[in-house]
Specification:
Length: about 450
């Protein structure tokens, strides 16, 4: 089939590339001319493991094209996927900003020819597909199209496998004709018996928000339990294991830390709250999830400050990891963006390392933070080390070297990557999240 994907951000580029891998003819369209020129030269604007190779393969095969023009791809497309950004906090009210989505609807409406399925791939509030359909019909009353919702469930750092071997594919449609078209696009996933949820459009739109809010709730819940563990002398890892072995609960997302971040959970929980409010329905659980997450980041600042003796002024702090999670260059809503400025404001000198953080973005988002070429350079002369993001390369540090480099061997492990007793034996003053404190080894 012929597919046009509007938007070459994270969702659009990954989706378009994987549709091409399925064998479809895909044109990815974006108004950012520089980005499109880079993609034509196979220079990928985001870090996502495996994406560069897949783009190169399908671009070379002629199945994956890039353009700044809506024509000729849109008029000849069987399906048009809208995958533009929906930034958070329109006018500061927490609602998803649909400006780009509606703009695309107005641009594609006059050039739709023949039967076309228009699909919202962007994460959008319930009712958005109806609004898009109304715009298209208003602009082009003769358009022969069906509207659909096909939310994405891609984890940054694992997006290729998530698309090619998904837990489920959710398709929201009103017509059997649109359903058959989308099933044909996803036919390779039918052949490997991936679960499909075929439902109404509004239901599909809500599934995405509900799923992300529930996962965010698990994170906030285990973080509150971790805080209680610190007060009563319990170990949150054992608590989480005991909980997770219950099949009704599961182990995933029961990992304590500095709070969730990224492009999805913060934005989607806020947008879902706004949807609840719009419809006059209470959502005390989601409200609490958002509040707990903000409080957790503030608690991490207090934890770091306490580890430094109550005052971070004139202290040099090494930070390992700035992105919101490993295997991505995404810093949107990362805990580092809340925690580190609070330390800098009170006089701390921050020396940071991250395998993929963009130096330009770091300079803009984290003024006063010096980016180092290696984790050991960051640790040189440091009064404390904060493990902020659990990149694999930080899981096997030469701890003896780290200890020797640091001025004061204070190790603040915000993801509990290391075994406390092992670090204490090496002479570190170890601080984890939700773990009993162990006295530092003398000497």
């Amino acid at each position: 089939m012929k597919i046009a994907v509007i938007g070459t951000g994270y969702v659009g580029l990954v989706s378009g590339t994987c549709f091409a891998e399925f064998g479809h003819e895909v044109t990815c369209i974006d108004v950012d001319r520089a980005k499109i020129e880079n993609l034509k030269e196979q220079r990928i604007p985001i870090y996502e493991p495996g994406l560069d190779a897949l783009v190169a393969k399908n671009h070379s095969a002629g199945r994956l094209l890039f353009s700044t023009e809506f024509t000729p791809a849109v008029p000849h497309a069987d399906v048009v996927f809208i995958a533009v950004g929906t930034p958070a906090s329109r006018r500061g009210d927490g609602y998803a900003d649909l400006t780009y989505v509606f703009s695309v609807a107005r641009q594609i409406a006059p050039i739709l020819t023949g039967y076309t399925v228009v699909v919202n791939k962007s994460t959008v509030p319930v009712g958005t597909a109806r609004q898009v359909a109304r715009i298209i019909s208003d602009v082009n009353a003769e358009a022969d199209f069906d509207m659909a919702s096909n939310p994405e469930f891609l984890r940054e750092g694992a997006a290729i496998s998530d698309f090619l071997r998904p837990d489920r594919v959710v398709i929201g449609v009103d017509s059997s004709r649109a359903e058959q078209v989308l099933k044909a696009i996803y036919r390779p996933l039918y052949l490997i018996e991936r679960p499909f949820v075929i439902t109404g459009i509004e239901t599909a739109e809500l599934i995405k928000y509900a799923a992300n809010a529930f996962l965010a709730a698990k994170i906030s819940f285990i973080n509150e339990i971790a805080n209680l563990c610190e007060e009563v002398g319990a170990d949150v890892h054992d608590v989480a294991k005991g909980m997770g072995l219950d099949g009704r609960i599961g182990r995933k997302f029961l990992h304590p830390g500095p709070g969730y971040g990224g492009s999805c959970f913060p934005k989607d929980t806020q947008a879902l709250l706004r949807i609840f409010q719009e419809h006059g329905v209470a959502s005390r659980i989601i409200e609490a999830v958002v509040e707990v997450n903000a409080a957790q980041k503030a608690r991490m600042v207090r934890k770091i400050r306490a580890a430094l003796g109550g005052n971070e002024a004139d202290k040099t702090v090494a930070v390992l990891g700035l992105t919101f999670k490993p295997e991505t260059d995404d810093m949107r809503e990362a805990p580092s963006l809340t925690i580190l400025p609070a330390l800098v404001e009170h006089g701390a000198r921050i020396r940071a390392h991250d395998p993929q953080a963009n130096p330009v973005e770091v300079a803009a988002s984290l003024p006063g933070v010096d980016l180092c070429a290696s984790p050991y350079e960051a640790c040189d002369g440091a009064d404390a080390l904060i493990l902020m993001t659990e990149w694999n390369e930080y899981r096997a540090l030469d701890l003896n070297r780290v200890h020797a480099l640091m001025k004061n061997p204070i190790f603040i492990d915000l993801h509990n990557v290391y075994d406390p007793s092992s670090l204490v034996q090496l002479g570190f003053d170890y601080h984890g999240v939700g773990r009993p404190r162990q006295p530092r080894k003398p000497g």
